[in-house]
Write a structure and sequence with these properties.
The complex is a heterodimer of chains A (169) and B (356).
Chain A lengths: L17 H4 L2 H13 L25 E3 L14 H5 L5 E7 L12 E9 L8 H5 L5 E3 L14 E2 L1 H4 L4 H6 L1
Chain B lengths: L7 H36 L15 H11 L10 H17 L10 E2 L5 E2 L9 H22 L3 H32 L4 H7 L4 E2 L2 E2 L2 H4 L1 H14 L24 H26 L8 H8 L1 H27 L7 H30 L2
Antiparallel strand pairs in B: 1-2, 3-4
Helix pairs in contact in B: 1-9, 1-11, 2-9, 3-4, 3-9, 4-5, 5-8, 5-12, 8-12, 9-11, 10-11
The chains are: A alpha+beta (169), B mainly alpha (356).
Chain lengths: 169, 356
């Protein structure tokens, strides 16, 4: 049969030489390797104090975006829910009233917007599907919860803070 | 009226010494567990325990507290009395051996009183050590048998067979040493290794008995049930070995006894082969610093040697894989015992023909 790689080596079954039989050189060699590791760089990241930087394509917790004036961008078109392979997103649309112009960017908005984080697989398809740049996956890690109920994130949990309200406090 | 002549100060002195040595060896064993985890971590390019206190130095305390608060389970099918006796015996024998080790030279106070830094200078010191150490195997056997668990039983049988096989080679390699020293008293053996260099040759027994030392060292590894001879534990083959059924502080006692044994064995090796508390230029040091400081330095030297030995045990543990059981027996019976016998023969011939 033809060899797949040139890395295969025949097993050496010749009888052990004297220096191999007394084991001591091999033990000494092993000890030099392990003792050598004392001086090597430690690979540990001391987690809560040090954090490894996220990759630029990291997909964490979702945020619902606002525009420059602090109006919600989401128009409840449902494309994110459609794109979601895990069917984690549900929403209900509502029509904007004239006095709510400062709250919502367009005539239609999401009255209810929920992501079930137990179903979500953080694939980021919702972000790709969104035509209004309303949903983004942030660099925040998903926290743990004690109940299933709180794992369903409401719109209030997802919306980013209002830029002007936050500045004014 | 002889009873009344007992020196009260002598009793108090020995009591204090015994307490200090017991607490000291417990403390060193505690920090040996910490050291083992640190050494393991460093050799695997990790950091090791670093959460409890600075550098994780409170980790042994945390472990102790954890073990005490764990639920204590005694299996229904176990032999209750023996089940409890097992770890107690392991702990008892581990702490007993420290009695005959000379921790430092005699300290003479200004009033002319001689304080020996040794609990008991009995003239069969080294025999006492080996007697007690071989009792230690009963702890393992009782534990494994009383658990009424097949794996524990297998492991304790292995451990007992291993201990018996290696004790032979251990004893024979020691005989060669004792033929040279001509004494079984630990203090005399140490005193013979005074300083480092005398009459054109090293005084330490390591240089006089290199082969004997090698056999002794390998057998000590086996006696301590430490890797690469940790047949008794065998976590990958026999689950946890003889302490599988143990929980809470009874398990803690077994683990702890192992570390105390390691410390005591390191001290015994340092005493027998590396000159005990002797160090190079000790006479010059004594002349310049005075007796009290000199005694302290001597104790520290012995402890340094012992700790160095403990570190060596740890390095080896994290370097070598475990022996297969038949290979272990082959090494013990077919290699170490003939080697020890050969060493004894050569030593005897040298003493007979070369030194006379």
């Amino acid at each position: 049969m033809e060899k797949l790689t040139n890395r295969s080596v025949a097993v050496d079954r010749s009888p052990m030489t004297f220096s191999e039989k007394i084991y001591l050189p091999a033990i000494f060699k092993g000890l030099t390797i392990t003792v050598g590791h004392i001086f090597k760089k430690k690979v540990t990241v001391k987690y809560p104090e040090q954090k490894r930087p996220f990759s630029p394509v990291f997909r964490g917790l979702h945020v619902l975006n606002r525009d420059e004036e602090g109006r919600e961008r989401c128009t409840a078109c449902g494309l994110c829910a459609l794109a979601c392979p895990a069917e984690a997103i549900t929403m209900e649309a509502a029509e904007r009233k004239p006095e709510e112009k400062n709250l919502y960017r367009e005539e239609k908005y999401a009255a209810k917007y929920e992501i079930n984080m137990l179903r979500c697989i953080f694939c980021g398809y919702c972000e790709e599907a969104c035509p209004k740049d309303a949903i983004y996956l942030s660099e925040t890690l998903m926290p743990t919860h004690y109940s299933r109920k709180t794992m369903v994130y409401k719109k209030e949990d997802l919306l980013i803070p209002h830029p002007q309200k936050q500045a004014g406090q | 009226m002889l009873l009344l002549q007992i020196d009260i100060a002598f009793i108090i002195e020995k009591l204090i010494l015994a307490t200090v040595i017991l607490l000291g060896s417990l403390g060193i064993a505690m920090y040996a567990t910490w050291g083992e985890r640190k050494v393991a971590a460093i050799m695997q390019d990790r950091i090791g325990p670093n959460r409890a206190g600075p550098l994780g130095l409170l980790q042994p305390l945390a472990d102790g507290v954890k073990l005490f608060f764990k639920e204590e389970i005694i299996p229904d099918s176990s032999t209750r009395a023996l089940f409890i006796l097992g770890p107690s015996l392991a702990m008892l024998t581990a702490t007993m051996t420290s009695a005959v080790i000379p921790w430092g030279p005699d300290y003479v106070t200004e009033s002319g009183r001689v304080i020996a830094l040794q609990v008991a200078d009995i003239n069969i010191g080294i025999l006492f050590v080996f007697g007690v150490v071989s009792l230690g195997v009963y702890g393992v056997m009782l534990g494994g048998w009383a658990s009424n668990n097949k794996f524990s039983l297998l492991s304790s049988i292995r451990a007992a067979a291993q201990a018996v096989s290696y004790e032979l080679a251990l004893g024979i390699s020691l005989v060669a040493l004792l033929m040279m020293t001509g004494s079984l008293s630990m203090r005399e053996i140490v005193e013979q290794q005074h300083g480092f260099w005398a009459d054109g040759y090293f005084t330490w027994n390591f240089f006089k008995q290199p082969l004997g030392f090698l056999v002794f060292l390998v057998c000590t590894f086996a006696e301590l049930n430490r890797a690469p001879f940790d047949m008794a534990e065998c976590e990958s083959e026999l689950n946890m070995g003889y302490h599988q059924e143990y929980s809470s502080m009874k398990l803690g006692f077994y683990l702890f006894a192992e570390y105390i044994n390691m410390f005591i064995s390191s001290t015994v090796i340092a005493t027998l082969f590396f000159g005990g508390y002797n160090f190079p230029f000790m006479d010059e040091v004594l002349a310049s610093v005075g007796p009290l400081l000199f005694t302290i330095i001597c104790v520290l030297v012995l402890l340094t040697k012992a700790i160095g030995m403990i570190l060596f045990f740890m390095f080896v543990r994290w370097t070598l894989p475990r022996f297969r059981y038949d290979q272990l027996m082959k090494l013990g019976w077919k290699t170490l015992i003939p080697l020890a016998l050969f060493n004894m023969l050569v030593t005897g011939l040298v003493i007979l023909y070369a030194l006379n």
